[in-house]
Design brief:
6-stranded mixed beta sheet, globular, 151 residues
Length: 151
């Protein structure tokens, strides 16, 4: 499994079994803590984008964290708008189990201080069900991603 497969919207239970149950996924707009929050991040990508094309991935450090440079092209469903995201991804893993503890997806190499954090908790606080929460997070993520990239 290459990490770019997850970023390409191709999650599987086998790939996600490499993650600890209490692992954390973090990007400029989301902190997803635990399997119930990070799995929808990956499974939601194909719901938002009609095309997801990995353009480049390379390992820049094989330590802990493992560091990757990724470039991915996304085409938004319904409106056809395309955007290319360049990310620096840090993958931290538990040395005993070998499973992933934390993933940081830094767009253009950074996690802005002004980002919306823990969008899942915001949706949950609004009384949304799991599938509604996923769509809520996806809408916010998509809106913020395009605003942040165009700024």
């Amino acid at each position: 499994m290459t990490p770019s497969q997850l970023f390409a919207g191709k999650p599987t239970l086998q790939k996600l079994s490499l993650w600890k149950d209490d692992a954390v996924f973090e990007d400029p707009i989301t902190i997803a803590r635990g399997r119930k929050e990070y799995q929808p991040q990956w499974y939601g990508l194909p719901a938002l984008f009609s095309e997801i094309e990995p353009l480049h991935h390379s390992v820049t450090s094989a330590g802990n964290p493992i560091t990757l440079d990724l470039k991915t092209r996304y085409k938004v469903k319904g409106i056809g708008k395309e955007v290319t995201i360049a990310s620096v991804v840090n993958i931290f893993y538990d040395k005993e189990s070998g499973k992933i503890d934390k993933v940081q997806d830094k767009w253009d190499g950074k996690l802005p201080d002004s980002s919306i954090k823990n969008v899942s908790a915001m949706a949950e606080s609004k009384g949304l069900e799991t599938h509604q929460m996923l769509m809520y997070v996806a809408e916010l993520k998509l809106t913020y991603k395009f605003c942040w990239l165009e700024a």
